[in-house]
Design a protein that fits this description.
2 copies of one chain form a homodimer.
Chain A lengths: L2 H19 L6 E6 L2 E7 L12 H13 L8 E6 L3 H10 L3 E6 L18 E4 L3 H16 L1
């Protein structure tokens, strides 16, 4: 396992934990370029009452703002859950170099939907997946009670 | 052709024209519920330097803000161009009643990508498609010069 990738995914997990504490579906994301985190975000769909406020969407917007350009060429996005169709579409438009996600989402994930991200973008998955899934399990178990 | 639908699509076209005047890809959208327009938006990807700033995304966020709730149940979104994968994913999360789009997008549209919107959501297309396409043609012809 790449220690650098593990470090950044841990940062995304820290964002997901902030989401859990705020009673949001705990998904976190960071965007990295040149060894530097330029955006951190967690899901805010409840607080903003906005279905588009996924961690990835906010991370893309924040990273583009930081870079002062809409394309995230050279960037890697680390996210704790497989992106949904909306987020995969946004990631495709952003043309970033790599997407690394932790846990898979067999119901809402982009892979089962047959959606592809930009051909330039490398996809990796499974890194710290158990840790990411554990946070989601805590959230949904609490919700069901 | 339904005159009510035509009226609202004309409003979406007016938004698209504002986009054209602002040197944005001219796509406009409105969200309607109970005979009232609750959100108007046009593409702002250049001004905001943000690939997620499509007309539909902004219209969804604005409509949810107006309704003070994240689901757009009972709403219809009129948009001048077939939604992309990102926007179709967002529309699916929003659970709105109907999506009416004007021009088709054979390259970037959600239909060719095999993406489906929420099963509750009715889809209609082709309304004022020539008018919508004419605006896009003006934009891209100017860009190529």
């Amino acid at each position: 396992m790449d220690l650098v990738d593990q470090h950044y995914m841990q940062q995304a997990l820290n964002e997901a934990k902030k989401g859990l504490e705020a009673d949001e579906v705990p998904v976190g994301a960071v965007v990295v370029v040149g060894g530097r985190i330029i955006a951190r975000a967690h899901n805010l769909t409840e607080r903003l009452r906005d279905v588009t406020a996924h961690a990835e969407m906010q991370a893309i917007t924040a990273a583009a703002d930081f870079l002062n350009g809409k394309y995230l060429i050279g960037c890697t996005l680390y996210v704790t859950l497989e992106p949904c169709v909306m987020c995969a579409g946004a990631l495709s438009w952003s043309q970033l170099d790599r997407v690394v996600f932790a846990a898979s989402d067999s119901k809402r994930g982009f892979l089962q939907a047959g959606v592809s991200i930009h051909p330039k973008t490398k996809i990796q998955s499974g890194l710290l997946a158990n840790e990411a899934k554990a946070l989601l399990d805590i959230f949904f178990t609490t919700k069901r009670k």
